[in-house]
Design a protein that fits this description.
Layout: H1 5-16, H2 19-40, H3 60-63, H4 71-89, H5 93-114, H6 124-141, H7 144-164, H8 173-190, H9 193-196
Length: 200
């Protein structure tokens, strides 16, 4: 059965306004940026990451999640980003977007202020931020379904998250730590006030 163009366009528009649709769009941008950077620009875009305590590195807070050192680096981030970001997207497009922005800005700013000097790039800060959000939501939401989502996240990526915050040469473990902490903050900030009230 052929779908009329106007129906297809409406479905596409509605999908792109869901949290998962926005997540896929962001991931597509990351892959497009890596293609342009590696194929057309000889990896010049990579220089625009977070440079701690350098004024020129401040704008890297916004660009860093979309920049990767290699295709393998991007591939390693894509699956956990898709799964954990998808779990966050269950809360809806608006909350996914707010959580993403908080993790990017707050986690990135902390990395800029406190991390070792170097060029910090990659979407792993977002990955750790989504994980932090999912865990934090368990304590702030006080409902069953956030516990189930956090359990899935821990079972799938718990060991990788733990190993990712161990100080390692050549890895922005600080970005991981600050991303995770920013995710916890995002869980607190975005939780409806009624969800945190004690019965009494």
């Amino acid at each position: 059965m052929t779908v009329p163009p106007e129906v297809f366009e409406e479905r596409r528009r509605r999908f792109l306004t869901t949290g998962f649709g926005l997540l896929l769009f962001a991931l597509a941008i990351m892959w497009a940026v890596e293609f342009v950077d590696s194929v057309l620009l000889s990896d010049q875009l990579q220089e625009n990451g977070i440079l701690p305590r350098e004024v020129d590195g401040l704008d890297g807070i916004l660009w860093a999640p979309f920049l990767h050192g290699t295709w393998a680096h991007l591939l390693a981030n894509s699956l956990p980003l898709l799964v954990l970001g998808g779990l966050v997207a269950i809360w809806g497009a608006r909350r996914w977007l707010v959580v993403t922005l908080i993790v990017m800005v707050l986690g990135g700013a902390a990395t800029w202020a406190l991390a070792r000097f170097g060029n910090h790039i990659g979407a792993s800060g977002l990955v750790f931020g989504y994980f932090g959000f999912l865990v934090g939501a368990v304590f702030y939401e006080r409902k069953i379904w956030p516990i189930l989502l956090a359990t899935v996240a821990i079972l799938l990526f718990g060991s990788a998250i733990v190993s990712g915050v161990v100080p390692t040469q050549g890895v922005s473990w600080e970005g991981h730590v600050f991303g995770g902490l920013a995710g916890l903050v995002a869980a607190k900030v975005t939780t409806p006030r009624d969800s945190t009230l004690e019965a009494g």
